[in-house]
Design brief:
The protein is α+β, with helices and mostly antiparallel strands and 359 residues long. Helices cover 37% and strands 24% of the residues. It has a 5-stranded mixed β-sheet with strand order 7-8-3-9-10. Strands 11-14-12-13 form a 4-stranded antiparallel β-sheet. Strands 5-4-6 form a 3-stranded mixed β-sheet. The chain is globular and about 65 Å long.
């Protein structure tokens, strides 16, 4: 149990439902009830920013190439992102949060943590506050949000994603152990696809399996992350809700199932990664000056090449052009490559939003 000055904290995680697509449906009623994919022309090399729930039924999800989304759901409505509209709504939502507490930690335009242990409404129950906040969001924006309520950030975030859309899930100190033990390992915050598969190969399929493994053993298998997994399996998360946390970089990378040698294929992969990177920059509303290319060869030797520009950017064409220049400074096309990554650092954050890399 997480305690702060002997008081059980009350943390709410608010996550807007299919945010970009929901704004489009709200502003264009003719889209309602139809699959909507925000991400632009499916004939381009763009990626999906958000898909509404109708589109998700066909397997469409964020960060997927729009061309793939079109194959899965050719009758969907494909629209270009309108970030100015999303930012406007995000600012409305943030003002709602601040009516209840000053301890607000945005994660992106569409989600945030709120510490309501002490709140401006002097309401004792976080569940009541979460319901009020959700109602105010609907009233003021005509959009729905899902909320998770718990005594720490880890549990609140997981809870908010369980009953979407328009969900509300509460995890109390009394129910936390059972909740965590039943949780599938892929649902744990900080466990991605690769780690999930590794854990399953070790017989770790749920929180109850993870809890059986000692901290020492987890560290031996997963390095420093093992200590994090050990604490998560026991519902231990003392991280405070912070108003500001500036990230050092935003990045995207891909590990290939087959090592790549053909230079044209490698360039195609760089373009795909650049698309994802730009999507993450724009969703986080952040630009940067330093572009870094990371290449890991088949023998696991890793090299990086960087260039710092004169101005802050999130422009896809500029990033892609410079990435190709950096690629020429590696042995791409000569040595087989197992991983390529791109990142932007030396960031200039918009002070209206949290500058945080999207995972």
């Amino acid at each position: 149990m997480n305690r702060e000055n002997s008081i059980v904290r009350k943390i709410i995680h608010i996550d807007m439902d299919a945010f970009f697509a929901s704004v489009e449906e709200r502003d264009f009623p003719e889209y309602r009830g139809k699959p909507v994919v925000v991400g632009g022309d499916p004939k381009s090399r763009g990626v999906v920013s958000t898909a509404n729930y109708e589109a998700r039924k066909y397997g469409v999800h964020s960060a997927m190439p729009t061309s793939r989304a079109y194959k899965l759901c050719p009758h969907a409505i494909f629209v270009y992102p309108r970030f100015s509209a999303y930012i406007e709504v995000s600012n409305q939502i943030k003002k709602i949060f601040e009516e209840y507490t000053d301890k607000v930690e945005p994660l992106s335009l569409d989600e945030a943590y709120l510490d309501v242990t002490e709140n401006k409404k002097n309401i004792a129950y976080a569940t009541i506050l979460a319901k009020e906040i959700k109602n105010q969001i609907v009233k003021q924006t005509k959009l729905t949000a899902s909320a998770g309520v718990s005594y720490n950030k880890f549990l609140a975030k997981i809870a908010s994603g369980l009953n979407k859309p328009d969900g509300l899930t509460i995890v109390t100190p009394e129910t936390a152990n059972e909740f965590i033990e039943k949780l599938s390992i892929g649902s744990f915050f900080g466990i991605g696809k690769v780690t999930e598969q590794k854990m399953k190969s070790l017989g770790i399929h749920a929180g109850s399996d993870l809890k059986k493994i000692s901290e020492a053993e987890l560290i031996k298998i997963f390095g420093k992350s093992g200590a994090f997994y050990y604490r998560m399996a026991r519902g231990q998360d003392d991280r405070p809700v912070e108003n500001f946390h500036v990230a050092k970089s935003v990045g995207a990378e891909n590990t290939f199932s087959i090592d790549l040698l053909n230079i044209d294929t490698i360039k195609d992969e760089v373009q795909d990664i650049a698309n994802v990177l730009v999507h993450r920059l724009q969703k986080s509303e952040v630009k940067g000056r330093t572009l870094t290319l990371k290449v890991k060869y088949e023998d696991f030797v890793t090299v990086t090449r960087s260039k710092t520009g004169c101005s802050y950017t999130d422009d896809l064409q500029y990033i892609l052009k410079e990435a190709m220049v950096l690629l020429k400074q590696t042995e791409a096309g000569i040595r087989k490559i197992r991983l390529i990554g791109l990142s932007i650092s030396n960031l200039d954050c918009n002070d209206r939003q949290l500058c945080l890399p999207m995972q």
